[in-house]
What does this fold into?
Amino acid sequence: MPHGTAPKQLKDEIDAGLQSRGEPPPFKTNTRKAANARDGRAGEWPDFERRRAHAAARRQYALDHLDELHERLREHWRRRGVIVHHAPNSAIANDIILGIVRDRGARTLLKGKSMLSEEIGLNDYLARHGVEPVETDLGEYIVQLRGETPSHITMPGMHLDRTDVGRLFSEKLGGEYTDDPPALTRIARRALREKFLTAKVGMVGVNFAVAGTGHLATVTNEGNGRLVSTLPDTVIGLMGYERVTESLADLALLWQLLARSATGQRATVYLNMLHGPSPGPSGPREVHVVIVDNGRRRLNDDPELREVLRCIRCGACLNACPVYQQVGGHPYGGTYPGPIGIVLTPALKGAGHAPDHPFASSLCGACEEICPVSIPLPEMMLKLRARSVDERAKPDPERAVWRVFREVMGSRRRYELAAKLARGAQALWPGREMPIPGWTDHRDAPRFAKKPFRDLFHEDER
It folds into this structure.
């Protein structure tokens, strides 16, 4: 599957993934620990629900005033010498970044963690044009060495264990095999250290841009984000158009909610605040911000789906989702797996680009319940399901089936006749289930009683 694209037949991707794992599937994704840790941290705040409601309101305020907040940001950045680039789509964003790298005479781009860079397919684009992208987040670095994309928003290598990483490092980086986590970390640190010290251009993903002050905030648990944004002479901040918050007070609340929701921490290890070019002897001499639209402004005008832009990319909905627990992140394709992905991917690209995504959910509501900014994901899935059905090619066999079902269920006489015919058809398959395409592949078919309840009721009444 090409990088950054979503499968047109998600069910087939999921089936193939499950079958390839054997019986029982040796699947290693277990995010319940993170979800349970989140519940513990939430319990430390007696007013957690009030804070969550406030955070949702502040994120919605930002979406309602995006153009105004961007104007304030541009003014701060202009005064501080930050160079601003606007990219309406992935292709233009990639061209801008490539141009910055080439203009500085660099052959390498040192990267902090950025899901947006995955969305626009930046790594593949740079590699095709002779620039080496180097992921410095440990999880991202591991999946890059494997030639994979992240399987989780905040824990990219969640589908791997230490033996996988040990074999990978031994093969790609040399040296004897070890599966000791501290030793593996040291191996990665040694491999990346030279990159940090020699890089001319670094790039960070922007978690939030603060309109009131002009800060670019990057949230990390590793020191790579700080190194990437201070050692190179040129630093690029890559941000989605919606990643704006009004004040430092808003940022403080969102930061704490993000950490608690993602991994159950009270706060992440690092909160990096980039103002602009450094006036002192250290720090970047040049700072660029690439603001990517890629469908976000159009989505913000969609009254049914715009609330999905409140997402702060914590991954909590993945941690709580029973479907994600079974299939992992890769079958979803695109960039964003799990509940947020099955809404965000078709919302940004159009329902026709990911027609099966809205159906990859049990609608249990766990994603909305755990979301720190209360995005109504199940409601949006239902709206996208309706859109997906509306965009199907005509004639649509499933539409015809449901039309017949509606007619049968709308009349008592037709219902009783259909039930009688179904009991007769069931008799043709004695001793086993009557096959129903798509249903009996994974579950038992309902069996009709030899005598319906209404006949028993009338006999008893007589």
The mean pLDDT is 90. Strands lie at 83-87, 108-111, 132-135, 201-205, 208-210, 216-220, 234-240, 244-245, 270-274, 286-292. The CA atoms of residues 169 and 375 lie 39 Å apart.
